[in-house]
Amino acid sequence: MRKLTCLLIVFILVVCMTVMAACTESGDNNSSSEAASADNSSTVSDNTDESSTDDTSEPDIVIKDFGGAEFIVLTIGGTDSISEILPNTLTEDSKSWLTLAVNEAIAERNNQTESLLNVKIKERKVDSGRVGGQMLTYIRQEIAGSDHTFDVCAPSIYDCGTLAAEGNFWNLKEIPSLNTENEWWDQSFNDSMTINNCLYFTLGDIGITNKNATPVVYFNKSLAENNGIDAADLYQLVRDGKWTFDKAYEYAKKLSMDTDDNGTIDYNDLVGWAGQADDTWNFFFASGERIVSAKADGTLELSMYNSRSVDVAEKMYTMFRDNNHYISANDYFKDSNTPTYDCTGKAFIEGRVLFFSDNMAFMHYFAAMDDDFGVLPTPKYNEEQNSYFSLINPWTGNAFAIPTTLTEEEAYFAGAVLDVMGYYSVKTIAFEYEQRTLKYQKARDEDSIDMLQLIFNTRGCDIGIIYNIGSSSGTSLPIMLQDLMKSASGAFTSSYEAIADAAQLDLDKVIAAYGIEN
Q1: Which of 160, 79, 65 is nearest to 420 (CA)?
Q2: CATH superfamily, domain at 49-211+396-441
Q3: How far apart are CA 382 and CA 244, in angstroms?
């Protein structure tokens, strides 16, 4: 009797699925607007799905039959560039950072999303520079016209800010099918980018590019040991909240040797720390200071200059100006068009640099490294600081946004598919990229695994950097931070004062764009 009952249930299910398929094929269902108005949507999910992020509760996602509608994501890159939206045809070059497992995870994520919502995920690529260029032009032209060639776009975070201020994106908090508070969206990033209860772009487990754009501090374990530094002690410093600017500089000063006897320390020698001009942004953000901050009432204010930030600046520039123990890739453009890879990065891989600060993406080049390496967050300003902070690079990082060309129904469709893609990314793409690709294959110890998780959990951006506040002066406050790397001590105050008025005017424009009443 039990077998007969089971067979009967299976028969009924097959008949139902056949009828549904016939109904889908009989109509024109390629319009996301028509699909969005389909009946029988719900937020109920099968908790036995192995991709569920929580086996004890139902996910907060929309489950709806969208009738085979196409979901199109606009991304940066040529036809042969690596995609985080669709599975790739891997080459020897792309395998350096996109493993077969991650590529398969992209396909699995898409298959699960397409099956659950009855959609087809597509990608439209724009061959563009990271900032501005064709991507920015393409989106502006679509907004200005009446075409609907994409549902979601993924520009650089810089361009996201520019386009949001122009009113080109939906406020994601107003799309009922997309819950940006779900765990697969980066909450620390969302917090830093929410202004006046408006969040125009977001990122999270759905993407790989934004993770690659996260800064980290690598260290050579062999060099550390040879210079009296125990790797376990470094990790413990982080856990105890004692990995600070002072401690980083103390350790960097343990190594300096002019091995080629040319009278200067460079990437051909032994050196304590190798970085680049972006370290100024990373350290300033890691200190907890911000160029622009949101006040409790949701308004924005210039917050870069205060007594604490002056101390922060002097402390970090003390290390950056020490040419015997710190070298910057920006000084070697005379030797290479890509000095981070060909000069400072190569020196770290070949065992001549104790600490190397760069983005997460660089870890994928360490397969050729003989020495073991470890991973640390960007150091805090001092021990009294409550948390570590990691700045997502707005140039190399990207975020996801929904254009205002979409109607409410179309935005509902876009938000639903984007959220479900995020949901299914947790145990597919994010798992393979973080748990396996980075943690077990690239980072070579369990402590570094803990460090990576800490870094991912404390990521964010500075509104002042994204909107390049102060640029109307001919420079900007972010550029000022980089330029001070080569300036004399004490220049922070005068440099800020020279730009402050223009910076306030720029900020006023951003405030107006977000509808804030100061």
Answers
A1: 65
A2: Periplasmic binding protein-like II (3.40.190.10)
A3: 5
